[in-house]
Specification:
single chain, 136 residues, alpha+beta, 3-stranded antiparallel beta sheet, 7 strands, 20% helix
Amino acid sequence: MFDRLEIRVLPPGPRFAAQVRFWVNGEDIVEEAVDGGGRGPYAADVLPAGRPSPLRAIGEARRLELGEPECTGGCCGFLTVIVQRCGEIVQWSDWEVPWAAHTPTPYPPPELHFDAGQYDTEVVRAEADRWWRVYS
């Protein structure tokens, strides 16, 4: 059984521009890994206008930054994952999670496997949904 991805853009707030959150199987994976107060990547960075999103899965593995804690990634590290297409499967693996004072040993999310068709459809949908640009 495959995992299911949903990409959501949160409106800008007083501290941050519009940011992206990744819901996997109904769970906000950024919030689970970086706790409340953390943030996902800026929408303008992962859903850029005029070029493909770095979220697109290709055959070559690459590390993507998906979030950071409230204290910033420069302090405690970033939530990152290796994204790679393996035929009709998109794999997220080799997580790195932020180090937080309240968590002596960070617990990474599990390896995730998405149906490539569903994954591609969701990334294309998120790229096309530009509502958040009016706030940027």
